[in-house]
Amino acid sequence: MNLNQLTARQLQKKLDAKEIKPQEIISSLKQRLAESEEKVRAYVSGADFSSIPDEGLPVAIKDNICTKGLNTQCCSKILKDFKPPYDATVIKKIKEAGLSVQSAKTNMDEFAFGSSTENSFFGATHNPWDIERVPGGSSGGSAAAVAADEAIWALGSDTGGSIRQPASFCGVVGLKPTYGRVSRYGLIAFASSLDQIGPITKDVADSAWLAKIISGHDIQDATAVDIPVPDYTKALVKDVKGIKIGVPEEYFVEGLDEEVKEHILQAIELLKKLGATVKKVKLPHTQYALPVYYIIATAEASSNLARFDGVEYGFRTDSKGQSLIDMYEETRGEGFGSEAKRRIILGTYVLSHGYYEAYYLRAQKVRTLIKNDFDAVFKEFDCILTPTSPTPAFKIGEKAANPLNMYLSDIYTIPANLAGIPAISLPCGLTKKRLPVGLQILTKAFDEETLFRIAYTYEQNTSWHLEKPKL
Ligand code: GLN
User: Fold this and answer.
1) Closest atom of ligand 1 to CA, residue 113
2) 24 occurs within a structural domain
């Protein structure tokens, strides 16, 4: 195996034993990039690979996480060539831990709006398992880079599934931490009450390690909770005896692909054999998660995106309008892509006078009911197990013309964001066409340790995480 194919932990062991030098990791990554990046396009086009720093293990970073002096464009024209004057807290923590930050940022749907990475100003990313298919989204670039061994590991962001769904489509491990576990300072906001940064890695051990590095209190983000961060690597225990698993009925309904279902049922059987008990549970408000999400997420997005007006950041129109309002309108008209505009319009509508109570406020109330469903289950159960996505990766272009159809691909991931709880996706099978299937595990808030323990036990008793795409 080449160095770029190893996990971060495997590489760190070799570095510690002085068997290899960091430069050797970088050169094997660069060699891989030269072979496969033209097909995969995991990175923002025009990205500069020559300057991967050659100290410490490099981490690939999604284009919406601020990196001082490095392009951070949210894959939008409106942030074209924006270079933040500061590092996001997660970037600071990565550097303090002795890791390095790749200068090339990973591709994403514009402002993280999407499930396929097709909404990028820089063009689509291709799934390494089948380059005619999408890698998922919005962190599709990070997931594809890790799956194609073009990165050792990566950071993504997850507002409604944007780490877990692409991890599932690309056969890698994606974690959305508990809301408040990881600082959002320097993450360009999509929906502030839902966004979390998390790791995308080749296995569960790397996920636990990177999660530990980026987690913790931060005075720059009032929602980053001031409670100690456990050493997640200590939770990597191969044992699920006595663990109580709930499987929600509402997730095994029409729309779930037969092959995906089969693999999830097999995973459940395996965990039973390993000593866990499994019972059906009810999450009765599941059917409202999608509409509630698309009200709250667009409302918050419309407010967060108001700052992009041609004055402070990035792009400004060339056209010489009559007034300041003309300049705002033309900048935003030219700078945002169509999905961003759709969401700004929808979000502005649900927040507007006369509709606020009917839509936004009501959605917030239903959000509480969804959270209560989870709280009730976690009184009795240690975790909930579901598919990550109802289907494997779909074809590029297949859903692009139908936004509503696209929104459905997040039906299993969105509830965790609404409830604020942690969730992980890990590989649990390949379809007959050799497309990866993801298993999602959810636990109660701030119980990432149980999450890692169950995920690790499952992974270490299977070999799905060792499969590689034939690119
Ligand atoms: N696909 C979902 C959306 O389009 C979630 C995106 C995300 O998690 N950033 O909103």
Assistant:
1) 4
2) yes
For residue 29, the number of C-alpha atoms closer than 13 Å in the C-beta half-sphere is: 28
Assess whether 215 carries a catalytic annotation: no
Kindly indicate the confidence band of residue 56, based on its pLDDT and cuts at 50, 70 and 90: confident
Rounded-to-integer distance, Cα 444 and Cα 136, Å? 26
Collapsing DSSP to helix, strand or coil, 442 comes out as: strand
- How many domains does one find in the chain? 1
**pLDDT tens per residue, range 129-145:** 999 999 999 999 999 99
Give the nearest ligand 1 atom to 194 CA. 8
Q: Which one of 36, 100, 116, 162 is the catalytic residue?
A: 162
- Which strands sit side by side in the sheet containing 100-106, from one edge to the other? 100-106, 58-62, 154-158, 196-201, 173-176, 423-430, 436-442, 383-387, 244-248, 277-281
Domain presence at residue 166: yes
- Helix, strand, coil shares of the chain, percent, nearest 5, are 40, 15, 45
Cα(444) to centroid(ligand 1), Å: 22
Res. 291: pLDDT tops 90:
yes
- Give yes or no: 409 in active site: no
Q: Determine the distance separating the centroid of ligand 1 and the alpha carbon of 181, expressed in angstroms.
A: 19
Per-residue model confidence as pLDDT tens digits over 74-106:
999 999 999 999 999 999 999 999 999 999 999
CA of 116 to the centre of ligand 1 (A): 9
Give, for 430, the enclosing helix (H) or strand (E).
strand 423-430
Which candidate, 127, 153, 199, places its Cα nearest to that of 436? 127
With a Cβ cut-off of 6 Å, ligand 1 is lined by 112-115, 138, 158-162, 190, 297, 410
Report yes or no on 341 lying in a domain. Answer: no
Instruction: Determine, yes or no, domain membership for 471.
Output: no
Name the residue of 63, 76, 109, 115 whose CB sits within 8 Å of the most ligand 1 atoms, as the mutation to test its pocket: 115
Catalytic residue among 28, 36, 62, 302, which? 62
Is 76 labeled as catalytic in the residue annotation?
A: no
Across 299-323, average pLDDT:
93
Taking the CB of residue 179, how many other CB atoms lie within 10 A of it? 23
Q: Are 73 and 50 spatial neighbours (Cβ–Cβ below 8 Å)?
A: no
CA 111–ligand 1 middle distance (angstroms): 9
Give the domain extent around 112: 3-284+371-466
Question: What are the pLDDT digits (tens) for 313-345?
Answer: 889 999 887 899 999 999 999 999 999 999 999
CATH number of the domain enclosing 236 = 3.90.1300.10
